[in-house]
Amino acid sequence: MAVLVTGGLGYVGSHAVKQLVDRGEQVISLDNLIFGHKEAACGSEIVIGDIGDKELLRKVFTDYKIDSVMHFAGFRDVGESVADPQKYYINNISNSIAMLEVILEFGIKMMIFSSSAATFGEPEIVPIPEDHPKNPTNPYGRTKLQLEEILKEYEHAYGLRSVSMRYFNASGADPSGLIGEDHKPENHLIPLILQVALGQRESIKIFGNNWPTKDGTCVRDYVHVTDLAQAHLLALDALRKGKETTAYNLGNGSGYSVLEVIQVAEEVSGKKINAINDDRRAGDPAVLVASSEKITKELGWDPKFPDLKTIVQTAWNWHSNHPNGYGGK
Fold first, then answer.
1. Which residue among 74, 212, 280, 288 is least enclosed by CB atoms within 10 Å?
2. Residues assigned a catalytic role
3. How far apart are CA 171 and CA 189, in angstroms?
4. Domains of the chain: which residue ranges?
């Protein structure tokens, strides 16, 4: 049986694809190449297209014996979702429902969904457990939460069992150096800092230096992308053994401040990072840290790269060897 991975040529998706291929799974990567890169296929079979194209999906499910779907495809920019919510509701919700229609047609009963910590909104408890109140503060977070709720209903109505994975800050790159993070435009902190180290950017902005944290800068939970991918394989194995629909938080359970990330990046790269203080961004919480006790207890998830220096080192290895991303050296 094969695994269909939507968004399989993107950042997190490609890391899951690599691990699936490495363990001998047949993998079909469906990607529209808005964010994905053919060079990140990692031995999977590539299908170029959109999750909202039901005829294409029917052909894929006809051509391959697929038993499960990993759903990474979606728009993910919080600021853009506020400026253009329709784009997010059409792609993240409407197109996903179109895909689900075909999944049901072909009797697929297992799905893993790439969700987000944005489903929680402002945290009331830190570290954040799965049952924390969910009050998303932007359309992006609402689309993730809405699809989680839709998937719960699909299990009750149609027997489609699913696991929703709520990422905190996906970071780093595969230790092999073959795949990594290549977003255009980039809005993740670690690659933005490393672009300064590479001379591609003059400075990095720190949005607020008077937060109620140890050094006044925001604290976030950075989790290595390879560890995220491993969690998806554990979830797939659990679904194949009959696991019922659930959701897991994926983080390291400890947070690092913006200044700490900058300091580690300077240490790893050997470069001075020019950081500029700027105003706080509306809606930014001071601290976002996950509790991942549930997936550790239920699936035995054991992150192999929890250390910030290791996370930044693997990112630096990728970016310094691929300064133009997949576009060449």
1. 212
2. 140
3. 9
4. 2-171+222-250, 189-221+253-327
Tokens 């959701």 locate to 247
Instruction: Report the alpha-carbon distance of residue 121 to residue 140 in Å, rounded.
Output: 11
- Please tell me which residue, 313 or 281, carries the higher pLDDT value: 313
Tens digit of each residue's pLDDT (9 = 90 or more) over 22-43: 999 999 999 999 999 999 999 9
In DSSP notation, 180-193 reads ----SS---HHHHH
Superfamily of domain 189-221+253-327: UDP-galactose 4-epimerase, domain 1 (3.90.25.10)
Give the SS3 label for residue 324.
coil
Homologous superfamily (CATH) of 2-171+222-250 is NAD(P)-binding Rossmann-like Domain (3.40.50.720)
pLDDT digits (tens, 9 = 90+) for 159-193: 999 999 999 999 999 999 999 999 888 889 999 99
Q: What's the CA gap between 40 and 181, in Å, rounded?
A: 10
Q: Which residues contact 164 (CB under 8 A, 6 or more apart)?
A: 112, 113, 115, 147, 148, 151, 246, 247, 248
AA identity, residue 30: L
Share of the chain above pLDDT 90, in %: 93
Q: What is the pLDDT of the chain when averaged over all its residues?
A: 96
| pLDDT classification of 56: cutoffs 50, 70, 90 | very high
Kindly report the pTM of this predicted structure: 0.96
